[in-house]
């Protein structure tokens, strides 16, 4: 058995040039709850860009990536629910041929393939918890979803529709508009040619929306505040355009707004929570209640192009890496 593997390592924060395709030591089981996984697919997410650029700090050098799926090679002595040969999905550093997972690893249900699992873990759990925990979407609600044709956006549109609420999506072009509409959005606003606030008010009879799910950040924050109705909620969950600058909390009192900045892992503090919500997510996918759109699969060695495509907003749906 080889003692080395290929991986993507970051030694300093910066642009895509800091993504190094290296040969490094293959990880080994060291703890009783460790699971060694041979990766088949790994997801690419905006959080990977935040780690690469230093928006979110890592101890460097580091292997980046946050999710993947593969086949178990070996397990620690205390692992009882997962065995070698099992197909699993996980949340932990993933841009490598092999990964050690411990707390955030779950066996896949029969019939769910590895590619689909890798494409759904992080964004699927994020979206599910946004609509159930950050703001509990209710039947009849009006919900604004920024970047509605992105990985999270397409999932949020479907989940909002499944709740019996009305989804309004923002997109940048006609192709993305068609994708968001096909996912269940009732109204689409092209922010490159239309005024988002004016359109939201027109659609909602000048009331505004009950909640906004905003993963874009700096460029959309003021728009989101303006689109919220009295007693509305703004859930800011990402920084795709940069971090939201400081603002006066007194501004929330203009409409008695609720503002939340959640992070996925505070909903998954225990292994039991991760297993519970993962099971709920995978069940929805298997039953056809949630469609996962995969945009493109790249070779691990082509990770720079994957990051450029995601940052350049050229994508719609999920990006994957393959060793």
Automatic annotation (TrEMBL):
The lineage of its organism: Eukaryota, Fungi, Fungi incertae sedis, Mucoromycota, Glomeromycotina. It comes from the Eukaryota. This is 23743_t:CDS:1. It comes from Racocetra persica.
């Amino acid at each position: 058995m080889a003692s080395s593997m290929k991986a993507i390592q970051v030694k300093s924060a910066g642009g895509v040039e800091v993504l190094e395709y290296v040969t490094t030591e293959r990880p080994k089981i060291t703890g009783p709850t460790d699971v060694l996984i041979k990766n088949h697919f790994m997801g690419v997410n905006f959080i990977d860009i935040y780690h690469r650029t230093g928006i979110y700090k890592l101890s460097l050098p580091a292997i980046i990536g946050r999710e993947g799926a593969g086949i178990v090679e070996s397990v620690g002595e205390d692992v009882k629910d997962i065995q070698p040969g099992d197909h699993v999905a996980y949340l932990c550093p993933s841009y490598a041929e092999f990964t050690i997972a411990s707390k955030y690893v779950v066996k896949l249900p029969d019939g769910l393939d590895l590619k689909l699992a890798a494409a759904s873990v992080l964004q699927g759990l994020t979206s599910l918890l946004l609509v159930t925990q950050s703001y509990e979407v209710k039947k009849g609600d009006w919900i604004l979803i920024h970047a509605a044709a992105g990985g999270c956006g397409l999932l949020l549109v479907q989940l909002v529709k499944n709740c019996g609420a009305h989804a309004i999506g923002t997109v940048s072009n006609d192709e993305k508009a068609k994708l968001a509409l096909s996912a269940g959005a009732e109204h689409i606003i092209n922010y490159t040619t239309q005024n988002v606030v004016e359109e939201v008010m027109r659609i909602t009879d000048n009331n505004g929306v009950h909640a906004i799910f905003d993963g874009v950040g700096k460029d959309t924050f003021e728009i989101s505040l303006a689109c919220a109705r009295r007693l509305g909620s703004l859930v800011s969950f990402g920084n795709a355009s940069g971090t939201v600058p400081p603002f006066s909390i007194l501004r929330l009192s203009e409409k008695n707004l609720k503002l939340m900045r959640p992070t996925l892992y505070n909903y998954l503090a225990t292994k039991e929570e991760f297993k519970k919500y993962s099971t709920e997510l995978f069940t929805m996918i298997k039953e056809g209640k949630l469609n996962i759109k995969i945009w493109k699969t790249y070779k691990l060695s082509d990770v720079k192009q994957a990051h450029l495509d995601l940052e350049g907003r050229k994508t719609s749906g999920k990006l994957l890496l393959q060793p």
